[in-house]
Amino acid sequence: MNFSKDELFICNCSSEDHQLIFRIWDFSKDENVDVELSVSVCLNDNCSFLMRIWNSIKYIFGHRCNYGHFQSADIKLEDLPRLRAVLDEFERKRLRV
Length: 97
Ligand SMILES: [Zn+2]
What we know:
Low-confidence stretches: none
Bound molecules: zinc ion
Radius of gyration: 18 Å
Number of strands: 4
Largest sheet: 4 strands, antiparallel
Number of helices: 2
Structural class: alpha+beta
Oligomer: single chain
Order of helices and strands: EEEEHH
Number of domains: 1
Helix content: 25-40%
Strand content: 15-25%
């Protein structure tokens, strides 16, 4: 198993909490396993212990923020060619072209 280099995309808002890392996993040397594309999302976990307890209590009572349970990352226009290259490489490896 090996993987291609990581491609890091930082959100248009430049927040360090909004990062996406794309990685292509190549299992082609193993039998019956394919190529996979993973997307890692940086989640903000730098809350204090008491803040995490407070967030848990809010969650138990059904609190939802305006955006639901998800954050989002706004990919910069200038990063589109890099993202396209990652997806093209994944497709090439997946289809073994
Ligand atoms: Zn952002």
